[in-house]
Amino acid sequence: MEKHIYASCLGISDVDALISLFHETLIDTNRGHNFFVAWEKVYRHTERHKIECNILNSLIGSKDFDNELRALLRKYPEALPVIPILVALRPLQLQVIKDFLDTDSDIVKYSFVKRELLSNEIEDFVEFFDKTGLKQFFESFATRSIFDYLTGVEVGLDTHARKNRSGAAMELALKPIIEQINAQFDGRFEILFQRKFSFLSQQFGIPVSPSIKDRKADFVLIDKHNQQVVNIEVNFYSGTGSKPQEIVDSYIHRQDELKENGFEFIWVTDGIGWSGQKNQIRKGFEKIEHLLNLHFVRRGLLEHILAALA
Q1: Residue 105 contacts by C-beta under 8 Å, 6 or more apart in sequence?
Q2: Could you tell me which of 183, 224, 288, 295 has the fewest CB atoms within 10 Å of its CB?
Q3: Average pLDDT over the chain, rounded to whole?
Q4: Using one digit for the tens of pLDDT, what is the confidence trace for 84-112?
Q5: pLDDT for 2-21, tens place per residue?
Q6: What's the pTM value of the predicted model, to 2 decimals?
Q7: Residue intervals in the chain for CATH 3.40.1350.10
Q8: Three-class DSSP labels, the chain
Q9: 1 falls in which pLDDT band (50, 70, 90)?
Q10: How far is CA 239 from the centre of its chain?
Q11: Burial (0-12, 13-18, 19+ Cβ within 10 Å), 89
């Protein structure tokens, strides 16, 4: 452990005091405000269907819904791909059991790909609107804007992505901090996010050993002046999943492999799961040159380390 890095930034050079501060400042959530809804993605998905939504607006409050739907599908087949999203689905190919009470019931196949529809296909879609409740929605519940409704559906669909964002929440927390630090360094680093190390040799001509070329990195910073490579890995340990010893050992091994390539390594970890794991954290501080939690990052230690490595 390079104690002077911690001493100059945190005022602590004693390992026991450092480990105590690490544990005292652990957090029990890594969710920032950008965790809940990925609004940029929601806007992107809805905006591309704005015209089709305006077409579907003509069905709101219809007194002759079936016939108006038939006419709409004939004249505006481009509205087809939007229909599954109205029932919170993305696939353009759906299969539905026509009647659960009938053991010999057929499977109905729907394709929402834009195309000129045959009469029997239009009738299938009229039935789809009726049996899924969309017909009743347009007749009685929709008010004035399918686009607004679609935005709400997209927000709902995005909540299914929260599971992935839970795993990526530390990346979301660190990314703006790393970008801000880089701005303070006048853009000295090329920042790569979720890239395999093979990308370094393909795009920058930096030699990479076979042992790590197919591994993906959370963050890779490349110094534009000397091509020094810094890998920043982040994780959040809530106390479930892998054992703490396995986690620490895996990052020690990661550092060793990176060192063989001449790369630097920084590990940022947090989470209440590390409480009571002082022996493992001690091992981490002894074996890994740069180990931080989010409190240490906010205190400026990450900036301090990158400045020393640059």
Answers
A1: 97, 98, 99
A2: 183
A3: 89
A4: 999 999 999 998 877 766 666 678 899 99
A5: 567 888 888 887 889 999 99
A6: 0.64
A7: 3-35+162-309
A8: CCHHHHHHHHCCCCHHHHHHHHHHCCCCCCCCHHHCCCHHHHHHHHHCCHHHHHHHHHHCCCCCHHHHHHHHHHHCHHHHHHHHHHCCCCCCEEEEECCCCCCCCCEEEEECCCCCCCHHHHHHHHHHHHHHCHHHHHHHHCCCCHHHHHHHHHHHHHHCCHHHHHHHHHHHHHHHHHHHHHHHCCCCEEEEEEEECHHHHHHHCCCCCCCCCCCEEEEEEEECCCCCEEEEEEEECCCCCCCHHHHHHHHHHHHHHHHHCCCEEEEEEECHHHCCCHHHHHHHHHHCCCEECHHHHHCCHHHHHHHHHC
A9: very low
A10: 22
A11: middle
Kindly give the interhelix angle for 3-10 and 301-309, rounded to the nearest 10 degrees: 130
Alpha-carbon distance values, 14 to 285, 291, 298 (Å):
11, 15, 20
pLDDT in tens, 35-79: 677 788 888 888 999 999 999 999 999 999 999 999 999 999 999
Give strand pairing partners of 266: 232
Give the pairing of strands 93-97 and 107-111. Answer: antiparallel
CATH architecture of the domain with residue range 3-35+162-309 = 3-Layer(aba) Sandwich (3.40)
Q: How far apart are CA 182 and CA 56, in angstroms?
A: 47
Residue pair 275/242 in contact by the 8 Å Cβ criterion: no
User: What backbone torsions phi and psi does residue 96 show, to the nearest 5 degrees?
Assistant: -135, 135
Between 34-43, 125-134, 245-254, the lowest mean confidence (pLDDT) is in 34-43
